[in-house]
Structures are given as structure tokens and as C-alpha cells.
Amino acid sequence: MRFYLLIFSWLILSCQRIPYQIQSHYDETTNPPQPNYALQENWASLPEKNDPADQVPLKSTYQNAQAQAKVDVFFVHPTIYTQKPQGSSDWNADVSDASMNKMVDESTILNQASVFNGSCRIYAPRYRQAHYHAFVTKNLTDKVKSLELAYADVKAAFEYYLQNYNQGRPIVIASHSQGTVHAKRLLKEFFDQKPLQKQLVAAYLVGIATQPDTFGSIKACENGSQTGCFVSWNTYARDYFPSWYKDGLNTSVSTNPLTWRLDEEFAPRTLSKGGVGLKFTFMPEAVDAQNHAGMLWINKPYVKGRWLLKTKIWHRADYNLFYGNIRENVKNRIDNYLLMTDQK
């Protein structure tokens, strides 16, 4: 029941904001100022910064090991900008908005980016994220311009990271939802069939349908130890097909994060290394999982009061449900990468 309350406190708050529809068209003259990534304040997480990505779940034995990590993760957060705009810009968030930053930090940075702190130094930029409406509007021009502005920031942050932080270290790319839209572009532009691909440990492209042929030379991971590849999944209740299923979800890569395979074999809850729940609390054997035709299907999470759970779309919990498995898998891939490249 407590796990249910955490996931749905996030879901319910988000859903309350989602119905807002932007009435104006995109106007570049009202864009928020471009972030300066030389300033720590324009990063939601940095290794030397005290931020929510440093935390580990309550009742877990995990430790924040960023100080000893030999690999970096560049994490691109999902859409948190869903409410009625309060500033001069409707279509893209202002990275100097303290209220918005607090929502980003207390949701995605805590619950998602922190999964990497056992094996990676975490770099997560604030960026002028596109409003949720950009994903549902029928006006293609508004949509493209809003997402282009958001990607321009992600690209600028990554370029600053490469020039000032990376120093040739191996890299994990990780993202969720809108963040995955931008992360895929980043991989195409900087890694795919480029020299930097040699530094790619793996990419966690979660929460957006990703096709097998998205990249030229970066393929879907086939197991839990492979490197230089990507994983991707979108979580739904068993037997559920969303209305947009045939818009690309049906042909997308689906990695089962309990087995790290692409097959459709059912993975029982005993393979779960745990999820995170209320007040960022660790919950053992949280869920089972099974790939099915481009989707990741789950039964109701194994928590008290599970019979009350009615949701069919588990998008917001793509990381939460599989927190322990992701954390373990990142370490496994890194260990394998370092072994193969003699960097350990």
C-alpha cells in the first residue's frame, strides 16, 4: 500500500497538471534565457554538488559511490513542466524557476538519476524542457520548435560536459520520456559511428518507443553484460494495449529489466532486486515483468493493498519499479566494459 501511495502521489499530481492546454503559438521572443553550464546552478546533479541524486533509498544497503566511480552518466530528465505556465514563456521551462527546479529534483533526480550513484558520477543538466503540450498538440510547427529549443540545451550541456568534465572517461547515457527523445538525438550526433562510441558503456533509453534501427551501429542489448548497446522499455499493466500502440510502440525494442533480455519469457517477482516507494523507501521483490510485442507488461506490484491498484499505464514508474535491477545492471556493464578495455 505504501508503494502504491508513492507512485500514485507522483502520478496523480502529474495528471492534475497534464490537462492544461497551451492556447498561444510558439513565440521565440518569449523564450527563457539560455542556460550557462559553467554555473553549477544550471545542473540538477554534479558529482561535486550536494543534490538528490546522491541519496540512496531508505531501508536499503546501497551506498553513494560517486567519489570512487570510474565512469560518468549523463542523465536527461523527463517532462516535469506540465502545469499552467506562470512566466513569459509558455512552451519551454525556465531553468531559473526555483519551483520547477524543486519539482525536478524531488521527482526524477531523486527517483531516477540516483540509481546510477553506485557506479557512476552523475551529470544531469537543467534544460528548457518542452511543455507536456508539445507532445499532444496538433500544430507540428509549435511542437518542433519547442523540442528543438530543449534539445539545444541538452546538446550544449553535453558539449560543456565533454570539454570540462569527461577527460576521456567511459560514459553511460540515461534518460526517461522527453529526456529519451533528446538522448536519442545526442547518441546519433555524438556517438553513433563516431569516435566517441568507443567510450559508450551503454544507453538506458527508457519511457519512449525506440526502434531497433534507430542507430546505425548502436544495437539493442541482448543480455545483461553487453556493452556499447542500448536498452529500452515502456511499462504497462498485463493485457493492456494503449490507444497509441500501433504508432510505433508495437515495433519498438522492449528490454525486460528483470532479465535484460529481449525475449518474451515471463520473469517472476523473485528476480526483482527491489523498487523504491513512499519517501524513497526500498521495497524488495516489487514486481514481475514480461515483454510482449514492444511493451513491458507487469502484474500489479506485490505490495499490501495491491488489489486496489487500477492503473494501466506505469510510465511514471519505469525506473522506480526496477530500481534495484537497474542499479545492479549498470555495475555489471561497467565492470565488463572496464575489463575489456583494461581501464579497471
H/E element order: HEEHEHEHEEEEEEEH
Calculate the mean pLDDT score and round it.
92
End-to-end distance: 42 Å
Shape: globular
In short, what is this structure?
With 344 residues, the chain is an alpha/beta fold. The protein has 5 helices and 11 strands.
Folded structure, characterized:
With 344 residues, the protein is α/β, with parallel strands linked by helices. The chain contains 5 helices and 11 strands, in the order αββαβαβαβββββββα. A 6-stranded mixed beta sheet has the order 1-3-2-4-5-6, sandwiched between helices. Strands 7-11-10 form a 3-stranded mixed beta sheet, with no helix packed on it. It has a two-stranded antiparallel ribbon with strand order 8-9. The N and C termini lie far apart (42 Å). The N terminus is likely disordered.
Topology:
Elements: H1 2-17, E1 43-45, E2 71-76, H2 98-111, E3 120-125, H3 140-166, E4 171-176, H4 178-190, E5 200-206, E6 229-231, E7 235-237, E8 275-277, E9 281-283, E10 290-292, E11 295-298, H5 323-341
Parallel strand pairs: 2-3, 2-4, 4-5, 5-6, 7-11
Antiparallel strand pairs: 1-3, 8-9, 10-11
List keywords for this structure.
alpha/beta, three-stranded mixed sheet, 344 residues, disordered N terminus, 5 helices, six-stranded mixed sheet
